[in-house]
Amino acid sequence: MITPFHAKYYANELLHRKSYSSNERISSSLFDAALAINPHQIYAALFAFKSPLSKGVILADEVGLGKTIEAGLVMCQLWAERKRKQLVICPAALRKQWSLELLEKFNLPSVILESRTYNEYQKLGAENPFDQPAIVIVSYNYASKMNLDIAGISWDIVVIDEAHKLRNSYRPSNKMGQAVKQATAGRKKLLLTATPLQNNLVELFGLSTMIDEHLFGDLKSFRDNYINNPDFDDLKERLSHFCKRTLRKDVVEYVKYTERLAIVKEFTASDAEQKLYDMVSAFLQRDNTYAIPYRQKQLTTLIIRKLLASSTWALLQTLETIRDRLVSIREGVLDADSDLANLFDEDEYALIEEIMDETEDDESPQYNEPDFDIKQLNEEIAELNSFIAIARSIDTDTKSTTLLDALTTGFEEMRLKGANRKALIFTESRRTQDYLKRFLEANGYAGRIVLFNGSNSGPETTRIYKEWVEKNKYTGRISGSPTADKRNALIEYFRDAADIMIATESAAEGVNLQFCSLVINYDLPWNPQRIEQRIGRCHRYGQKNDVVVINFINKRNYADVRVHELLDEKFSLFKGVFGSSDEVLGTVESGVDFEKRILEIYQQCRTVEEIEQEFNRLQKELEDKIKRSLRKARDTLFENFDADVHERLKLSVNEYLDRYTRYFWALTVFALGPNAVFDDASHTFDLLDEVASSPPGRYCLIKKGTEETSGILYRMSHPLGQYVLNQALNEAVFSGKVTFDISRHTGYRISQVEQLKGHSGYLTLYKYIVSSFDSEEFLLFAGFLQDGGPLSAEQCQKLFECGGFADTSYQVPPGIKKKLKAEIDIYAGATLERANQQNLVYILEEEERLDKWTKDMVLALEKELENLFIQMHNGFALHEIILDEQGKPIDYRFLKVNAAFEKLTGLSAKDIIGKRVLEVLPNTESYWIDTYGKVALTGETITFQNYSSELKRYYEVSAYRPAPMQFAVIVSDITDRKLAEVALQGAYEEKATLLKELQHRVKNSFAMLESMMQLAADSYTSEEVNQALKEIQFRVNAVSQLYSQLHQTSSYNQVDTYEYFEQLLQSMTEFSPLKLRTNIEPMMIPVKIATSLGIMLTELVTNALKYAYPKDTEGELTVELVKATEGLVLKVQDKGKGLPEGFVIKNSSGLGLNLVNALAQQMKGRFSIEGHGGTTCTIQIPQEVLKV
Questions:
Q1: Is there a contact between 437 and 314 (Cβ–Cβ < 8 Å)?
Q2: Which of 288-297, 610-619, 946-955 has the highest mean predicted lDDT (pLDDT)?
Q3: Which of 113, 196, 251, 705 is the most exposed place for a label (fewest CB within 10 A)?
Q4: pLDDT(27) > 70
Q5: What pLDDT score was predicted for residue 585?
Q6: Residue 1048 contacts by C-beta under 8 Å, 6 or more apart in sequence?
Q7: What are 315-359's pLDDT values in tens digits?
Q8: Is residue 88 within a helix (H) or strand (E), and if so which, with residue range?
Q9: If you average pLDDT over residues 942-951, what whole number do you get?
Q10: CA 1162, 1163, 1165, 1166 torsion: positive or negative?
Q11: Given 3-state DSSP classes, what are the helix, strand and coil percentages for the chain, each rounded to the nearest 5?
């Protein structure tokens, strides 16, 4: 039995945060993981915690070695340390698998965020749905789309699975990679990829920039260092700090792999089947059909092609759906460009989503729908009906009959190998899945089949699920997620009750079926990576038997034969120990792209010869890629496996996991006491009453390598485990007497404690927290014996391995406390010193990394400057200044010049380097030497233009000081420009003279015209004629005044309203008895607008003089020109006799008002006139016109 002192120590020992450099750094996650952990996985997880200054690492273990487990250990440890802002970015197809693995193996909650769930959280009031109390899992494309939301969260860790998809993220054109990089910038990252190097070394640079932009210099320096002049040793050393890779061949000692054995079942399609295939295939090869809308053509064609090889039943249902849509178009229910609704089942649509995810950035060509052709539509409906008739006539597929033979062969192989009688049949179609179930049940397999698909929602599935829930009601295995629990229920039913599982691609990921050793590919995917995933459900770590893989080949379909040949011979998918290697799979950058290549062959080739030619071309491309494989570089760069380190780590881990088990079990017994009945031998207990919301029932302490238990899985992260730990942490014991009972200790010998039998003494335990780059916690023991003898920290720790009993009322004497505290202070000082030393190591590593980055950038800059120096169009020259005894510049020497300088000056580098300028150009003006001397002596940068009489050229020069007593110049030849400026200046002066003369003549012409009109008016006695001439004179005057103002200012496109209109009004009313009131707002308006306004004002004032105050009668005239919100307003108001009754502008015969109205409309304005108590004329010009 342990004491409260034991309990408090044990709880702190289990939970305290270990040092980054300690092998126990991930102890909590190792203890909590519901699976056996291998040494290479522990080493990889510790590698991720290598330094608190690190911004992330790449875990690049080969396929099948458990990178997800390695990431889970890191995430679980951070979760235990309350660092719970965690994000997983992965391909869309892997999101569910991640969620299940985290929950089942590490008891970590997660949320899959997509558009639908994001919107649901927003409706519930979430400001940013990415801010979750659980781990957030998103697809690459959704992360790219929501990059701003993601960037708003301070993530403790970002895990990026299949990270090779971001190998080109350094390119600005890679929109998804750039968005993901921006979203996660500055966050610690864990990149997972089995193929960190697929095509060239630049991909390593791309992945490194996802972690930290300062791991290498820029792309140019990376190419110079490791591609143009490869230094693999240096690259390997730098990679070793952030990239960890283990190969399968390194771990065969403790990770046992079995063989893959391939069996091919050939069959010959019936005449009806072949006829249907040929007819539908020819139909799919057409360019434009109503049956398959153009924008969906590639994806739809791909799926129908798959169904052609899958089953007649699946094809029949698809053809009927297409036919029904065309009938609806003919009847006007649907548009001709409508989508193919409900064409695909859920699992087929999942494949389409995957393809769309990987090709989202592809630009689709523009397509214009042709005119509707009812004749073509009817012909297509007739053709589809003929296809449907043939399909309905086929009762049983030849391939399904061959499946019966395949099952017989496969089960016999299982019997001979002593394996379970289990078969996993894969198909890409739910419809084929249903057909196969009916067919097999009718042929002897009734009651022995279970289905697994994307929805898992059929009646039999529901029954199996309900039975599973009832069975596990009190085991704690029900996760609360129906999706996850249904998957588990179906897998266990397959394991315990069924012989055959018929599965769609939904079972190709996130499902572990090591108990099954027979895989049948009823449909063979064209994507080699998906085939590897399928077989990997059974052929994986934990499989005890060789795995048999059965494939089908239709001998009448040559393209199918070649596809199988390619997948088998070039990718080695179906045989061997490891299946397809990373090097080979890595040659296919995208399985989706590979599928599209295969589809192109099916679509474009009509004859066997064409098919042969295209497959040979594709095979040659693959062979070339595989030959160019970077295997040698990969081995050189990543080979850092150390078997001795792994063995020592394995022993160390086993030791502290044993200790953790003992401590946690003892704590559980101590905390729960009478509330439970314990079985120490099996580490199980029956909880009698509910505790901490944990129901009564049997609980089983987690054991490494055992995922299944006979009760509720009990571990530290379980709510009951958390309760036990908190109870112990909160034990209020600070002083007392403990008697350690070594006599009752069993299981293993503690010699250090046995030596202390009969002795007594004092000890104390402190928790010491060191906060630097990250917090570390140390448990420090200090003690001594009663006789004054020393008691080491290890002895103190070993004492607590023994049970005992305590007297908590005992108080340690103050003198003893003081002595113990003095010892603790010494240990604390030593601990702090060790922590500081370790921090210094981290700092030095970081300094070294940044120093290398700086050297990379300097090298890149030097090369860039060198290239710039050579290629620049401007001349460049470096000189040193020469002084006399008084320190006055008297000459300078050429040190370096570029080709452009030679070209611009006519001086050859070989003739001038090392020589003085006065040697080369004896008549050089002193101005040049004085100016350059000032730059070299003061450091002042000068830019100037000057003429060189020696070189007979004009130059523009920028001079600066790169070093003391030196100056550099950047030179441009501006001779042509200078000569052009001189010529242009002469032209300007000539033009100004001509313009001045022209203005003088125009002004005189206006004056002459006004004088002639005045003389004409004086010579006529008719008042009407005189008035007409006077009005014309006013109009000419308006233009003359405008021209006069333009002549007096420097502007030829704008006029000052105040000066123009004041002068105009003054000249018109100078000899009139009228009292003029003006309010002219000063502003600049375009000449065109001013001209029209001047004429309008002239007409309105003339009318006032003529009609409001005839025969020079006295009166008052008000003129306003102001700028309003809506534009410009001109108002002319008199207090004369007003307008005639019923006056309307458009009915007026007078030229003046009609001219004003026409000009206002021309400027998009409005002219209005009112005649009450005088006349008020208003003209409004809109703001938009004034901007023209």
A1: no
A2: 946-955
A3: 705
A4: yes
A5: 44
A6: none
A7: 998 899 889 888 888 887 766 666 555 666 666 655 555 554 444
A8: strand 86-90
A9: 89
A10: negative
A11: 50, 15, 30
Kindly report, residue by residue over 438-459, the tens digit of the pLDDT: 999 999 999 999 999 888 888 9
Strands (E), 605-711: 676-679, 684-687, 697-701
Transcribe 808-823 into DSSP letters: TT----HHHHHHHHHH
DSSP state of 365: P
Residue 749 — φ and ψ, nearest 5°? -90, 140
Query: Given a cut of 70, is residue 476 above it in pLDDT?
Result: no
Token pair of 551 as six digits? 């494939």
Both tokens of residue 1150? 């007078």
Residue 950 near residue 944, CB atoms below 8 Å: no
Is 301 or 887 the better-scoring residue by pLDDT?
887
**Of 316, 821, 151, 266, which is closest to residue 554 (Cα–Cα)?**
266
Q: Give the relative orientation of helices 643-672 and 39-48 as an angle to the nearest 10 degrees.
A: 90
Give every CB contact of residue 127 below 8 A, 6+ residues apart in sequence: none
Rounded to whole angstroms, the Cα distance separating 1126 from 704 reads: 82
SS3 of 956, please?
A: strand
Which region, left, alpha or beta, applies to residue 470 given φ > 0 means left and ψ of -120 to 50 means alpha? alpha
Residues 31 and 789: beta-carbon distance below 8 Å: no
For residue 1083, pLDDT beyond 80: yes
Nearest-angstrom CA–CA distance, 1158 and 1164:
10
**Given the DSSP bridges, would you call strands 449-452 and 500-503 parallel, antiparallel or unpaired?**
parallel
- List pLDDT tens digits, range 643-700: 554 555 555 556 656 788 889 999 999 999 899 999 988 889 999 999 988 999 889 9
Q: b/e for 143-180, b at 16 or more Cβ within 10 A?
A: bbbbbebbbebebbbbbbbbbbbbbbbbeeebebbbbb
Q: What's this model's pTM, rounded to 2 decimal places?
A: 0.57
**Torsional sign, CA 319, 324, 330, 334:** negative
Contact by Cβ (8 Å): 1036, 1014 = no
Tokens for 1044? 């006069």
Checking DSSP bridges between strand 697-701 and strand 684-687, what pairing results, if any? antiparallel
Query: How far from the centroid of its chain's Cα atoms is residue 876's Cα?
Result: 44
pLDDT band of residue 884 (cuts 50, 70, 90) is: very high
In sequence order, which ranges of 686-783 are alpha helices (DSSP H)? 719-729, 751-754
Helices and strands of the chain, counted as H and E runs: 42, 34
